[in-house]
Write a structure and sequence with these properties.
Blueprint lengths: L22 E2 L2 E2 L13 H22 L15 H20 L4 H21 L7 E3 L2 E6 L4 E2 L1 H19 L7 H4 L1 H16 L3 H17 L4 H20 L2 H11 L4 H4 L4 H13 L24 H37 L3 H26 L16 H25 L5
Antiparallel strand pairs: 1-2, 3-4, 4-5
Helix pairs in contact: 1-2, 1-12, 2-14, 3-4, 4-7, 4-13, 4-14, 6-7, 7-8, 7-13, 11-12, 12-13, 12-14, 13-14
Amino acid sequence: MNGIGGWNPFRPKSGDEGFTLPVRDGIHIRDSRPTRAYGYDLLLVWVVVCLMALGLVMVYSASIALPDNPRFARYASTHFLSRHLLAIGIALCVALAATQVPVKFWERITPWLMLGALVLLVIVLIPGVGKGVNGARRWLPLGVMNFQPSELAKFAIALYAASYMTRKMDLREQFWKSVGPMLATLGVMGLLLLAEPDMGAFMVIAAIAIGVLFLGGVNGRMFSLVLLVLVGAFVLMITFSEFRRERIFAYLNPWDEKYAAGKAYQLTHSLIAFGRGEWFGQGLGGSVEKLHYLPEAHTDFLLAVIGEEWGLLGVGVVILAFFWLTRRVILIGRQAIALDRVFAGLYAQGVGIWMGGQAFINIGVNLGALPTKGLTLPLLSFGGSAILMNLIALAVVLRVDLENRELMRGGRA
């Protein structure tokens, strides 16, 4: 197999003593093998655990003063810490179970997961069922946590896009047969997300779907056309929405008196937090902006608190961790494709786009490089359903890696 999207399997490197690689068509199958040892990719697991541990500490630091606000007066100072810890505990248990499920099973149930995600996106819009916060209706109250269907939709679209491209591989040169149905599905999902409204989630989902189409080898002209249509759709949404237009203007000139106390309030205080952090930060717990100046400090703007308390050094470590995580997951996907496991490979690369893309948007928003969007920082920010779906998605990637390793030593996936 020559690979998908224009790459070939890498030839084995010297120094891999004691490791025998299968040979196919005279070429050793390696393709960026993540680690030499069999089993799980332990380094990937440790990076994820370290990010979650940092997130747990920073969620506590960012939320400890919230009970001083009348809105949260009935909460204990450890309320968000305990809720976040509970979410991590539940997510770890479910993720551990997900690693025991073969990738073929996920491929079989992909249509049902996609259907379930669409149904939940409809249910959350029903008055009295979906929970509304600050004008947005995005959550379903489930007792132990508020579940956000858009997080399930990200996982479902990664599976669905991979399955779709696997089935349509022979039709990659025919636009309507290869791309049309995917665009229709994406359009329906986009309308439901924009009704919440949750444009940030729609941007991530669109990036996952289009990224998997590109990596699956869709014709370059078709890909450019799809990209142009999506960009045009986002431009139209901004043009015909006064709220979104104001956000763009506020982003372009956040220090203007018209915006500094309104649409750009979060952005200006986020920038102040980074400025106070300088090189090495004010120290853990030393943030001033989290004291009711910076809204959503424990969710969307957690990185600003990290910047204020840990400085450029701490922010740099977080950015490098997400870069490494994204690259590692994508390499696992490339390895699967080199082993003729196209669905598994495209799914893993879709998850890489998800984690890397969402982290990029959140970091850009916090730093003022992108307009403000309601997106959390994966694995770090407070949010039960986000942590749950992030860990399930990464657990399935670990399963892909496990099956890759089994095949590479001559076994069966």
